[in-house]
Amino acid sequence: MKAHLAGRRALLALVAIALTFVSSTIILLLAGANPLEAFGHLLTGAFESPRKLGDVAVAAVPLLLCSAGMLVTFAAGLWNIGVEGQMVAGAVAATWAALAVPAPAGVMIPLTIVAGLAGGALWGLLAGVLKTYGHVHEIFAGLGLNFVSMALTNYLIFGPWKPPDGATMSGTDPFPEAAWMPVITGTRASAIPLLLAVVAIAAVYVMLRDTRWGLTLKAIGLNGQAARRMGINDRLHVLVAFAVCGGLAGLAGAVQATAVYHRLIPGISGGYGYLSQLVVLLSGLRAAWVPLVVFFFSVVQVGSPRLELRMQVDSSLGGVLQASLVLFFLLVNGLGRRLERRRE
Amino acid sequence: MLSPLVIDTIGSLVAASSPLVFAGIGEVLTERVGVVNLSLDGSILLAAMAGFAVAFVSGSLLAGVAAAMAVGALVALIVAYGSIALGQNQVAVGFVLTLLCADLSSFLGMPFVRIPGPTVPHWPIPGLVDIPVIGRILFNHNAMVYLSYVVIVAAWWFLAHSRPGLQLRAVGERPEAAYARGIDANRLRYVYTAVGGAFVGLAGAAYSLSVKIGWSHGHTSGMGWIALAIVIFGGWSPLRVALGAYLFGALKSLGSILQPTMPHVPTQVFQAAPFALMIVALVLVSGEATEGAARRRLPALLPVRLRRTITGLLRGTPPAGLGKTFQPD
After folding, report:
1. How many angstroms separate the CA of residue B4 from the nearest CA in chain A?
2. Residue spans of alpha helices (H) in chain A
3. B120 lies in some domain
4. Is A53 near chain B, with CB under 8 Å?
5. This prediction's pTM
6. Same-domain status, A108 and A241
7. Which of A114, A282, B49, B64 has the fewest Cβ atoms surrounding its Cβ within 10 A?
8. Residue B120 is part of which domain span?
9. Who among A277, A316, A324 is closest to B106 (CB)?
């Protein structure tokens, strides 16, 4: 029976993938581009050199961290759309640490990590407080705070943290090298963030499956009122879930600043917060599937700039492919369930 | 009296708010029938791009507007089909569509970035424009802006006073009861989700052909979320949603007027203000917070009747069947 179900799931996934390619082909033909060439760039661009493969790891870090965080809030039935802003808050906090505290690398790197966690957690808590005490739906609280965080970054870059020779859109001055995460030779990837991201997703997997807190969150997610009647302090757990998710997103933002750009730039979150929402949806809210989906998304992420370089079409095709895969996955799943019901 | 400058500023904000009026009222229709179309931020973008591109290529404004409305309706129908027929989470489908449409607009709109194109021509309504003050505020615009007035009044009348409007509300509140009385609840949900989506698409055309002319990457981004928030702020009522759109437009243009006079305030404060404002507005209208605040803070300042009016104005309850699917059998 179980094998039968797994087979059906695989079939549905294949249908979703096929539909994605058909629709993307139509879109490419509309834009007057060669579909085969475009898919080639998207799917193989990441494998052309060790350096590009390293870039896959660079893209995977924020996706893994944000998805891990979002699994926690989703378990409690919360749609934390504010992950993007929580990344920014983490990056801002890490930048503050890197610019303000003179310290050797051995102190500085842990310090920026803690700052990122704290900054993101605080920004996440803000959305949580608006949700629990202000009765504002977390989607609107989170989105509003995303836009506010972007304005905050711009303010800092063009105000207090502007480089001595004038502020530009390229961001603050580079951090002192003590704050740079060391990279793996020949690539742009750093080992520390990758390790942290893998630990985070594994920890969330175990936490949701095996711990009491995981069970509590799921109870709140299924029915908050019932959980409250059973004596669970749902407000507190919701706030903690927001803080944990925000913290992991903040860590992702901090890593973007210290390991990737070595400075604070406008739009440092780079859309990874929104992209992770797609990752989590495509994983069916299950931690075990997240790494595979993250790998695929990162490959597309690294491949898509080649579209602009080699074919003069917009790199947003990568995003179209990712989002339409998730859309078809949702629709095909629903269709499968509907056919099942009809057969019974 | 009001100086001509002030009058023209008010006039320009009435015009600038017209896309938010279209999008807000479209979403009111959709949500009042019980469906949440969360895709607004993406569908407005895609519709704005499609509207501009089609008008540019065909040379016909009408074709552009029709294309934009078709895009909005189509996206809305995907949300409706995904939730009603396939039982998927409306918010999830809507959110995925938000991202998908935004990326699609960037990809397909690339040939149309920052090129001059057709615009809805300025057309002061003869006679009416000469009415003192009001004439220049309301009737010194283009056909798209006048259409927004018509949509406000028509949507209000339709929901409050027409028989199909009553059926729409019945489906949104209690689909099973409506079904028991012989109304095909899910069919109505498809119809009005599509109609609402068409107005959302019209908002896109209102941007690219009238208010923020042309096309660029992320041309209208953020506005869809504002429109969704205005629907809550306006308590799902067309008149109050329109009021919310104008209020938002007024505060935004107040910001751009104040900005040069306050050079010590960083410009980013004004960029963030609409969204901070959105959050504050939502805190204010959320039931418990308003009642509490009214009871605690307003009494010392205001007479009872006025206090009640204010609380009543700020509060709104969503349709009881909002976001809940219904399976007839």
Report:
1. 34
2. 2-30, 35-44, 50-75, 83-100, 105-132, 138-158, 191-210, 212-222, 224-229, 234-255, 272-282, 290-303, 305-306, 317-343
3. yes
4. no
5. 0.93
6. yes
7. A114
8. 4-220
9. A316
